[in-house]
């Protein structure tokens, strides 16, 4: 769920306070709390039957109440309520069609009509039965070594100290397509944009910490993990697993690959394995079009 205009200021204050705690204290609890903020503070209000108009009117009031309690530090209450709400939504039936319908309605409410039409015409998501889950695990194996990852966590591996400024973070966030899917935490790029527009400091603080390996190792499974969705293949040809990573991790990745030194090393690495179009906008497409043009010239008998 997005942040309403009236909730942007309290949301930015809650996010900035949580980022400061995570950066300064460095505890696993504070980092997990930071990742959990969208599900704790930006939850939709309970459904009120078919009274959609009343539902929309009370969303702002509901969210303001959640954010107010977050500012008061009532995290135990918010966590308990979020868990109860998750259980209720998690036991609904009719997974495939219901998920498509909810996605279409969400896109319409956000004004993304072209994406809503595409979602409506897509094959949809498979219902999560035992067979589907088994097939998902076969195609997208789960990692069960997170404890080892936490124990062996190291720094950046080199003497480089990565740092970012407000403009870099803002441009990287703006680079996410509108309506980009959230990871397991429910955090969206738009959530960060709404907050940083008012209090810009928190973005580069948290990104710098993550880029330099200063987050607790126990957070790795939450930051680097991703929920996997079983999309239906066209023509009934099985399922296609789609993993959706955390926006915060993807943001740090965007910031790092835009650094000149990273770009150079990446280009060298990919060139060694014969990768085309590295570091050139539309480079691979240019190479393909050149080959197509060459074949066309040969077909026409031209030199």
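^ Assign residues to that structure.
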């Amino acid at each position: 769920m997005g942040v309403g205009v009236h909730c942007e200021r309290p949301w930015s204050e809650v996010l900035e306070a949580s980022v400061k705690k995570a950066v300064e204290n460095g505890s696993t609890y504070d980092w997990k709390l930071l990742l959990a903020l969208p599900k704790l503070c930006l939850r939709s209000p309970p459904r009120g039957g078919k009274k959609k108009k009343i539902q929309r009117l009370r969303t702002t009031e509901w969210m303001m109440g959640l954010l107010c309690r977050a500012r008061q530090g009532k995290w135990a209450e918010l966590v308990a309520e979020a868990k109860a709400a998750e259980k209720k939504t998690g036991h609904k039936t009719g997974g495939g069609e219901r998920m498509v319908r909810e996605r279409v309605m969400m896109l319409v409410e956000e004004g993304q009509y072209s994406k809503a039409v595409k979602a409506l015409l897509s094959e949809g998501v498979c219902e999560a039965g035992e067979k589907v889950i088994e097939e998902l695990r076969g195609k997208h194996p789960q990692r069960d070594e997170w404890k080892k990852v936490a124990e062996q966590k190291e720094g950046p591996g080199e003497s480089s100290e990565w740092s970012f400024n407000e403009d870099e973070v803002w441009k990287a966030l703006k680079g996410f397509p509108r309506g980009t899917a959230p990871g397991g935490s429910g955090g969206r790029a738009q959530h960060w944009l709404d907050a940083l527009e008012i209090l810009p400091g928190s973005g580069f603080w948290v990104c710098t910490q993550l880029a330099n390996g200063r987050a607790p190792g126990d957070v790795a499974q939450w930051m680097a993990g991703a929920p996997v969705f079983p999309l239906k293949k066209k023509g009934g040809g099985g399922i296609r697993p789609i993993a959706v990573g955390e926006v915060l991790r993807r943001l740090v990745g965007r910031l790092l690959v835009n650094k000149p030194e990273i770009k150079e090393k990446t280009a060298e690495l990919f060139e060694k394995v014969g990768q085309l179009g590295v570091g050139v906008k539309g480079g691979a497409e240019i190479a393909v079009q050149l080959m197509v043009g060459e074949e066309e010239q040969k077909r026409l008998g031209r030199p």
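The mean pLDDT is 81.
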